Amino acid sequence: MAETPAPTATPKSFYNEKVNIDVIKALVEKANSAPEVVFKDVPKDSPTAKTIELAARLGIVKGHADGSFKPNQSISRAEIVYMLSKVMNTSSASNPTKFNDIAGSWAEDAIHRLSDNGIINGAGDGSFNPNAKATRSESLLMILRLLNVSLGHSLDID
Asked: Which InterPro entries match (predicted)?
């Protein structure tokens, strides 16, 4: 009796169409040729130093005007949205949202783009609260939506 071959699962892409892999490749190429980034408040032996430097070289994060990064400072909702927008497939929102508290914000375009693509929904009262601290759960939810992870199913992690 012949053995039946095990079914082969088609792997699901780790990112969705909202993530532009070409943008990521261009960022990595740029980062590889970018000069070293040093922040005066991030010791080279810090466990996060290499990650912070890479994110800065990728153009995902920026330091402060005084040469600091402030690694222990809380991050705002606008800041996390801005970082995530760096890998979005769209250059601008095609259907800007009407959050009542983002007009003139430095992150307004990023907020529109992530909202337009279903990554963020706002606070439910017409606001986004861009200057509020981003909670871990809010940040994680945005990342999972960007990576197209279904929250209704278990994750297969090898």
From this structure: Cell_Envelope_Struct_Comp, SLH_dom
